[in-house]
Amino acid sequence: MAKAPLWSLLPKGLKISALLFLTVLAAGTIGFHFIEDRTLFSSLYWTVETVTTVGYGDILPTGMAGRSFAIVIMLFGVSLGLYSLSSMVGFMVSGEFTRVRKVINLNSQLENIKNHVIICGYGRVGRKAAEKMDRLGLKYVIVDRNEGAYNTTDNGHRLFVNGDATIGSVLSKAGISRASFIISCIPDDSVNLYIIMEAIEMNPGIKTIVRASREESVKRYRKVGVTEVILPEEVAADQMVNFIVDDLSS
User: Fold this and answer.
1) The overall pTM is greater than 0.85
2) How far apart are CA 18 and CA 23, in angstroms?
3) 106 in any annotated domain
């Protein structure tokens, strides 16, 4: 699974600050190199010293052109410093830092999880499956297109991948190649079929459990190699009849 680069998680203000800083460093290094006839390393050191307003005084511009260029770099450095400081404070105060930290932690857990269950669909059935697995101490990853369905206070400990489970890259992020089971409990048989077909193609050894909305869908699931098909109506009927039989035999 490809790791999301840290750069993509940062807010726009910090990205702009970083790009401006690198631009000023590059411009200063090249400028001092040609104007003052210094080595590239000395020019870089000089630029950093100027931008950060440290001013050790160990290297000084000797000509009018060098001094004028140093003034420009100083002005850019101060402006850049103030902009970067405000961006950093905004990043910390707005909660973006907490969000980025959570995303990094989530990605790390998703990369290391194995022998787990993937739950596709976080509706009533998927939520109940997750609750049951919590009680049993099973490892699982939830996949759902609706990120809002997951953003509740009781989901902080659950691994969640926001996306369409019919897409291979989404299943890959959920660790399909290392998973032992996949449960597709979306109330749409055609969607479940696509998910299972994609899952089996990516991990031929995975065991699949599917919720079926219609009896005629069972044969289709069996043809693609589904391990277990669950008909909610049939399960409910069995439980009702079992209750009656247990009551009559007691």
Assistant:
1) no
2) 9
3) no
Q: Which of the 8 DSSP states describes residue 116?
A: -
User: Which residues touch 17 (CB under 8 Å, ≥6 apart)?
Assistant: 80, 83, 84, 87, 88
> Are 46 and 154 part of one and the same domain?
no
Which residue matches tokens 């040609």?
34
- The answer to the question of residue 100 being in a domain is no
CATH code for position 68: 1.10.287.70
Are both 25 and 121 inside the same structural domain?
no
Are residues 175 and 236 located together in one domain of the fold? yes
Where in the chain does DSSP place strands (E)?
Answer: 117-120, 140-144, 159-162, 181-184, 207-211, 228-230
pLDDT single digits (tens) 43-89: 888 888 877 777 666 667 777 887 888 888 888 777 776 777 677 66
Same domain? 87 vs 125:
no
DSSP H helices, 52-123, are 64-93, 96-112
- Could you tell me if 76 and 136 lie in one domain? no
Tell me the per-residue pLDDT of 38-49, one tens digit each, with 9 for 90 and over: 889 888 888 888
Give Cβ neighbours of residue 50 (< 8 Å, ≥ 6 apart). Answer: 28, 70, 73, 74, 77
The tally of domains found in the chain comes to 2
What DSSP string describes 33-47?
A: HHHS---HHHHHHHH
Q: Which residue has the tokens 């790009």?
A: 19
Q: Which domain holds residue 181?
A: 114-244
Angle at 33 between CA 31 and CA 38, to 5 degrees: 145
List residues bridging with 184 in a β-sheet: 120, 210
